[in-house]
Specification:
The structure holds 2 protein chains of 2 kinds.
Chain A: H1 2-23, H2 37-43, E1 50-51, E2 63-65, H3 69-76, H4 79-102, E3 115-117, H5 121-150, H6 152-155, H7 157-189, H8 197-204, H9 222-246, H10 254-282, H11 290-293, E4 297-299, H12 300-306, H13 308-318
Antiparallel strand pairs in A: 1-2, 3-4
Chain B: E1 4-8, H1 18-27, E2 37-41, E3 49-53, H2 62-66, E4 72-74, E5 80-82, H3 92-96, H4 132-138, H5 150-153, E6 160-164, H6 165-179, H7 188-192
Antiparallel strand pairs in B: 1-6, 2-3, 4-5
The chains are: A mainly alpha, B alpha+beta.
């Protein structure tokens, strides 16, 4: 009897539920609205990443796939190597060629024995602060770009690792005195480095480099002004891009860091090439030039040949004649 | 030799984050560093999908190409590993990586990067397999013990697959054929220059 009742109950239940099952769709497609990787990749604009939500605080980790990062790889391992190698090797080659053709530029009248103060102690301190830190920054910077091709095979992994780590720390810490040096240079020398018509004439006359003319120049000639503005503007570009890289993700995102890296590398290597020329002409390239930044005292004949207008002003100053501005009333 | 790969079947991932937890615990990964993470696309909307992502151990790895000290190397199993003795924490690998895999402890000057840390595919580093030094720097070396990465091994829905690329590709293809849908082998085109066509 109980079996019969159970059978009736089962038949009853089936007869009630069966039509409900029949009404359900026979195939369900749970992926009809789902995101597909290929669609997301196709919709990506340059510099964008496939993004989502993460439950960890690190905002960068919400970028799932960023195929555009490969563009930075191509520039960092392509154009940057070429810009660096060509500008530096090109400059070294050019200077060698110049030296072979022109030789050392001599003081044509010979040394006079009399000297004139060209740069005071603070000016020389500023110069050498910037110069010495720049040399370390340049060497450690080049190590990052070219070290793995040039030094690592020769030094071996065991030594190259700690050396590069040391170089990186030097680069990070010495950037601050370098930045200070650039700011000081701007303050103490900008008044003598405003470009004017005399610089155009100086360049037209070959600047004393091409030919043997000595076009008149004030405290800084056209070439020195170019070096000054290269250091100031290049230094500013290196400072801004360098601070971005030194404090990652403080002021900019990943794309900004990639751009900063390229700017820092390219400007840095062009600066190195420019400074090679500056070092050449300030040392072996020209007799009497190094004294300006060495002792600060330059030979009078050297000064007359290269900075004729400046010498005139200095000699007037010595004689007590006011060189400019309003004459002082005798009170 | 196998070519080890990861494959996250997003149609199975339930965003439980157990892979993340397992990884952190297995390798004693410090605070602030995530070798693996789960990203949810279209969160809260119909058709949302979660993907567990870590280092994909790329073919022609971008990190290795840009590293200034050549600290990366690829094992016979196709696993991309690195040496923390060589790494200088410059951050270039993070700029180049399409998956945000490299992580840095904030131990260096100005609170910036220390030596890089990333997923090792549970395969340690250059030190002797399962040595104390290797464990301290890179975590455990399960591959040397004949085991697969823990994240994939303990995935409760078997969404995250690890193993020989050809084998996990077959498993994924069979799944897609059987159920009739698949949102794709996430990251494969970018990492291996090859998708999975079903």
């Amino acid at each position: 009897m109980t079996r019969l009742l159970a059978a009736i109950a089962v038949i009853f239940t089936l007869s009630v539920t069966a039509p409900a099952i029949a009404q359900q769709p026979t195939t369900v497609n749970p992926t009809a609205q789902s995101v597909k990787e290929q669609d997301l990749l196709n919709a990506l604009k340059p510099g964008q990443a496939v993004q989502g939500r993460v439950s960890i605080p690190d905002a960068n980790s919400s970028n799932l796939i960023a195929p555009g990062n490969q563009n930075w790889r191509a520039v960092n391992q392509g154009i940057m190597h070429w810009v660096g190698a060509l500008s530096i090797i090109g400059m070294v080659g050019g200077l060698l060629l110049f030296y072979m053709m022109k030789g050392r530029i001599k003081i044509s009248k010979g040394t006079s024995g009399k000297t004139l103060t060209r740069f005071n102690g603070f000016e020389r301190f500023t110069h050498w602060l910037t110069a010495s830190t720049f040399l370390v920054l340049a060497a450690s910077g080049l190590n990052v770009t070219f070290g793995k091709f040039v030094i690592q095979p020769w030094l071996g992994d065991a030594a190259f690792g700690p050396w590069s780590q040391f170089a990186k720390f030097c680069h990070n810490y010495l950037s601050f005195p370098f930045m200070l040096g650039v700011v000081l240079m701007l303050l103490i020398w900008i008044k003598d480095n405003i470009p004017n018509g005399r610089d155009v004439a100086w360049f037209k006359a070959g600047g004393g480099l091409i030919g043997d003319a000595h076009p008149p120049a004030a405290r800084f000639n056209g070439g020195q002004k170019v070096i000054f503005w290269t250091v100031i503007l290049g230094g500013a570009a290196l400072t801004i891009s360098g601070l971005m890289l030194l404090f990652p993700f403080q002021w900019t995102g990943l794309e900004g860091l990639q751009t900063s890296n390229v700017v820092h590398g390219v400007v840095g290597m062009v600066m190195i090439a420019a400074m090679l020329a500056h070092i050449y002409i300030g040392s072996v390239g020209m007799e009497g030039a190094f004294d300006a930044m060495g002792s600060g005292e330059v030979d009078l004949n050297w000064a007359k040949e290269h900075h004729s207008l400046w010498v005139e002003d200095e000699l007037k100053k010595r004689a007590g004649v006011p060189t400019g501005g309003k004459p002082m009333a005798a009170e | 030799m196998a070519r080890m790969k990861f494959l996250c079947d997003a149609d199975r991932c339930i965003e439980c984050n157990a892979c993340v937890t397992a990884c952190k615990n297995e390798h004693e990964v410090p605070w602030g560093i995530n070798r693996r993470r789960v990203v949810t696309i279209n969160d809260g909307k119909p058709g949302e999908r979660s993907i567990s992502m870590a280092c994909m151990h790329c073919t022609d790895a971008p990190c290795a190409a840009v590293c200034p000290v050549n600290c990366f190397y690829t094992t016979d199993d196709g696993v991309v590993l690195h040496s923390k003795d060589l790494c200088i924490g410059c951050g270039y690998c993070f700029y180049a990586c399409p998956f945000g895999a490299p992580q840095y402890p904030k131990t260096a000057n100005f609170g910036s990067r220390g030596k890089m840390d990333k997923c090792t595919y549970c395969a340690g580093g250059p030190e002797a397999d399962n040595s104390k030094e290797e464990y301290e720097k890179y975590g455990s070396n399960r591959l040397a013990e004949g085991k697969l990465p823990l994240c994939a091994e303990m995935c409760s829905t078997k969404s995250l697959l690890a193993g020989d690329g050809a084998m996990i590709e077959t498993i994924y293809k069979e799944r897609v054929m059987k159920r009739g849908y698949g949102s794709g082998a996430w990251g494969w085109k970018t990492a291996y220059k090859q998708g999975i066509n079903v």
